[in-house]
Amino acid sequence: MHVRIRGGGHDYEGLSYVSEVPFIMVDLINLRTINVNVNETSAWIGTGSTNGELYNTIAQKSKTLGFPAGVSPTVGVGGHFSGGGYGVMLRKYGLAADNIVDARLIDTNGRILDRNSMGEDLFWAIRGGGGNSFGLVLAWKVKLVDVPEKVTVFTLDKTLKQNATKLVHKWQFVGPRFHEDLFISILISRLNTSDPGDKQIVASFNSIFLGEMDRLLPIMQENFPELGLRREDCIEMSWIESTLYFAGFPRGESHDVLLSRIQPSTRYFKAKSDFVLQPIPEGGLEGIWRLFFEDEAQVMFSPYGGRMDEISPSAIPFPHRAGNLYNIQHMVYWDEGEDEVAERHINWIRRLYSYMTPFVSKFPRAAYINYWDLDIGMNNMKGYTSFVQAKVWGIKYFNNNFDRLVYVKTKVNPSNFFRNEQSIPSLT
């Protein structure tokens, strides 16, 4: 029987709780103790905790400490951290996994290990090598980061009639090169109005600046005046309030809302990912918009640069560093559960993914392990993956780090006890 590990909630393909073979699921949802040490600027986090629980606990202890993880408060840190984990502070501090300094892990022999006893190879592998491929992580120790007492956020929505195409095109040149305190992502979606014939594409420029607006406005005026940011567009708030802002909660909402593990709404979806090394021309962007008129979808452009350019691609298994301008997350949604409905939407996002081929990374066409995608590579749905099969998707997720991950897996888990359809294989 297979053993599947569920670590709090972060699994795009459901590999931690679904299988076509008999399995036992070890659910870590109750391992949710979080201990923040302000003097050491560190925290021990139970692997079943969520981002929201972590952020709320930090805020109770300090107004000037934070952590660079994702924007969704209901995401579990177990999967999020083990795949890398990026959020709106990655240009300043890198990924969540870049800031992990220790861990507690159960190996295949039932031993509880820390960084010292597991060794640096295994500690390297679990920080971005994929969820529970090497052992069962019980808790993570992270280095907390400095945040100012006031940060500045803004969201500007631009339609095609408001030059969204030219603005997105220009963003590709400036977004990854802004000061590291500034993060501007773009969420592109189709806006459905009351008129069925009036479908609009909207590009939402969502930003956080780790400082006050008096510093932000000159940076924007110098580097991206076309966006037209005004003082009245900006909101100053605390860092913990910004986590609520990016999660979509209204201003003034209690911080306790971060403790809820229930998503406000759930829908069926399929996601894919890409990395962009050269700006996409305006004509290429317009092709995306044309496809968007056919289905209810979103793409998120998340800029790199800053600290992400400074960290070696082999520092942890996550290899997508210098040279990448931004990451794309493609998503399509639907509400009906029938197979033919799902197939129609999934086929659409596959067409979008195919269309993007000339504009994204090549040899390999890279992907992000936290956006698991069973379309990538040869997937044996009986749960066994050979090295040759795994290499197809392994180099997309991990590039040159894949071989080292296989070496570690073979060393610490030779029987492939911990596995799923896209886990690191063991050579034995």
From TrEMBL:
Domain FAD-binding PCMH-type: 1-147
Pfam annotation, one family: FAD_binding_4
Cofactor(s) in the UniProt record: FAD
InterPro entries reported in the protein's UniProt record: BBE, FAD-bd_PCMH, FAD-bd_PCMH-like_sf, FAD-bd_PCMH_sub1, FAD-bd_PCMH_sub2, Oxid_FAD_bind_N
Family classification: Belongs to the oxygen-dependent FAD-linked oxidoreductase family.
Pathway(s) it belongs to: Alkaloid biosynthesis; nicotine biosynthesis
Role this protein plays: Involved in the biosynthesis of pyridine alkaloid natural products, leading mainly to the production of anabasine, anatabine, nicotine and nornicotine, effective deterrents against herbivores with antiparasitic and pesticide properties (neurotoxins); nornicotine serves as the precursor in the synthesis of the carcinogen compound N'-nitrosonornicotine (NNN). Catalyzes a late oxidation step subsequent to the pyridine ring condensation reaction in the biosynthesis of alkaloids.
Source organism superkingdom: Eukaryota
Keywords: Alkaloid metabolism, FAD, Flavoprotein, Glycoprotein, Signal
Protein name, per record: FAD-binding PCMH-type domain-containing protein
Keyword field contains Flavoprotein: yes
GO BP: alkaloid metabolic process; nicotine biosynthetic process
Entry GO MF terms: FAD binding; oxidoreductase activity
Endpoints of the signal sequence: none
